[in-house]
Amino acid sequence: MKNAGILRIGFKLLVNDKGKFFGLLIGITFAVFLMMQMTALFAGILNHAYSTVTNIGANMWVMDPGVNTATAPIPMPNYLEDEVRSLDGVRYAVPLFVGGAMVKMTDGRYQAVSVVGLDDASLFGRPELEQGNIQDIYADNAFLVVDDAEFPKLENPKLGTTFELNNHHVTIVGIAKVASNGLNGVPTLYTTYNRAIQYIPQMNFTLSYLLVQPKDDAAVPDIKARVAKLGYVALTKDDFNRQIADFFIYQTGIGTNILLMTLISFVVGMAISGQTFYTFIYENLDKFGALKAIGARGQQLVYMILFIAALTSLTGYGLGILLVTVVITAVRALSPYYAAIITFWNLALAFGMVLVIGAISGYIGVRKVLTIDPYDIFRG
Fold first, then answer.
1. How far apart are CA 304 and CA 314, in angstroms?
2. How far does Cα 262 stand from its chain's mean position?
3. The pLDDT of residue 221
4. 281: burial class by Cβ within 10 Å (0-12, 13-18, 19+)?
5. Opening angle at CA 126, ends 123 and 127, nearest 5
6. What is the pLDDT of residue 146?
7. 209-214 and 90-104 strand pairing
8. What is the DSSP string of 30-84?
9. I want to staple 44 with a disulfide (CB 3.0 to 4.6 A). Which of 81, 239, 262, 339 is the partner?
10. pTM value?
11. What pLDDT shows up at residue 201?
12. For the packed helices 344-370 and 285-293, what is the interaxial angle rounded to 10 degrees?
C-alpha cells in the first residue's frame, strides 16, 4: 500500500498516547451507546404499538378515518361489511372486534384486559396455540389467553381457569403465543366476534375493523378509492404501521423526547471527541512537524489524520454497539416489559452520526496539521 508507512506511524502515535486514545474511544463509545439506547427504545415502542397489526396479519384494514392506533378503534356500522365484500377487487372481508374490558379475579381484584373478537366462521387472525384446541373457542364462554409479558397479571391461568368478565363467565380453553407483545400493558384475550360484542357493552355500532384480502396487488388502489367514497379508509398493513408510527412521532411527546435525547448524545460525543482529538494533535505538533521536515507531504499527513479519526470512530462505534447490546440483553432478561430492540435503521443512524463525528474531528486535525511550519517547530 502506497501510504502504509505513514499510516503505521499515525497508528503508533495514537496508541502510544494511551490517555488520549482511551479518551477518544470512551467519548465515541458513550455517544454511540446513548444514541443507540434512545433509538432502540423508540423502535421497541413502535414494535409494540404495531403488535395488533402484526399479530392479526391481514393485508388490508378498513377503518374509520379518525383511527390513530390499532388499539383505539372507532366503531363502524355493520352494513359496511357487505359493501366492502361486494367490491370487485376483494377476495374476502371479515370483521374484527378490538376492545377493552375488566376481568374479576378469583380473589376479587379487577384486571383490565384487551379483547380481540375474531370472525366466527373463519377465525382469521387467530394466534398460534401453545396449549388447547382452536375448535374449543366455539364452546360456551370460551376465550384464549395470550402468554406474553402481561400473562402473570391474570395469575398465570391454565386450561379450564374461569374468570368473570363484565358479569359474564369466561373459561380459558387455549393458551396462545403471538409475534409481538402489546404496548398498553394489559393481558390479551381472544374469542369469537359475536361473543365479544355480546360480552362487552358497545354503542350503536360494533364493527372495529374489516380485514380485507384483495385478489391481487393491482386491486389495492381501487379498493382504497371505493372505500374512501363510502367515507372510510382502507390501508395496507405497511400503511397502517406507518400511520401508527406517525402518530407516536408527531402527535405524542415520545418522538420529540427521543429525538432530543439522541441529538444531545450526538453533541456530547462530538464535543468530547473533537476536544480530545484537538488536544492529541496539539500535543504531537512537534512530531508532525518533524515528519514534514523529513519530506512527508501534506497529502500524506491528511491521510494519517483521517486514518486516525476513522480508526477511533469505528472502534468506538463497535464498542458502543457491543455495550448497548449487552445492556439491552441483560435488562430484557430481568424485565419482560423492557421494549428496546436493535434494528437496521438505528444501527445505520448511529453509524451515520459517528461518521459525522469522525469527519469533524478529522477536519479539526487536518486544519491544524496543514498549518505547521517545521522551522517554527525546531526553532521552538
1. 15
2. 15
3. 92
4. buried
5. 165
6. 92
7. antiparallel
8. HHHHHHHHHHHHHHHHHHHHTHHHHHH--SEEEE-TT--STTS---B-THHHHHH
9. 339
10. 0.78
11. 80
12. 60
Whole-number Å distance between alpha carbons of 341 and 262? 16
Q: Which three cell numbers stand for residue 266?
A: 450526538
Mean pLDDT of the chain: 84
Other residues' Cβ atoms within 10 Å of the Cβ of residue 177: 14
Which region holds residue 127: left if phi is over 0, alpha if psi is between -120 and 50, else beta? beta
Q: Which three cell numbers stand for residue 319?
A: 464498542
Q: Tell me the three cell numbers of residue 279.
A: 488536544
Per DSSP, 87 falls in state S
- DSSP string for residues in 116-152: EEEPTTT-TTPPEEEEE-GGGGGSTTEEEEE-STTGG
For residues 100 and 116, give the distance between their C-alpha atoms in angstroms, rounded to a whole number: 9
Average pLDDT, consecutive stretches of 10 residues, N- to C-terminus, the chain (380 residues)? 67 74 81 84 84 89 91 90 90 92 86 92 92 92 90 89 88 90 84 92 85 91 92 93 87 78 77 74 71 69 79 87 91 80 86 82 72 58
Grid cell in block for residue 98: 378490538
In terms of phi and psi (left: phi > 0; alpha: psi -120 to 50; beta: otherwise), the region of 156 is: left
Count of Cβ atoms closer than 10 Å to residue 136 Cβ: 15
Residue type, 375: Y
Cβ pair 315, 358 in contact under 8 A:
no
Domain boundaries of the chain, sorted by first residue: 4-48+253-379, 77-231
Q: How confident is the model at residue 376, as a pLDDT? A: 56
Which of 66, 81, 76, 73 minimizes the C-alpha distance to 98?
Answer: 73
The residue whose grid cell reads 352494513 is: 79
Residues 23-82 have pLDDT tens digits of 778 888 888 888 888 888 888 888 888 888 888 989 999 999 999 888 889 999 989 999
Q: In the Cβ-directed half-sphere of 297, how many Cα atoms lie within 13 Å?
A: 5
Q: Could you tell me how far CA 155 lies from the centroid of its own chain? A: 29
> What is the greatest pairwise CA distance in the chain?
96
Could you tell me which of 174, 202, 198 has the C-alpha nearest to residue 188? 174
Contact partners, residue 17, CB within 8 Å, separation at least 6: 280, 283, 284
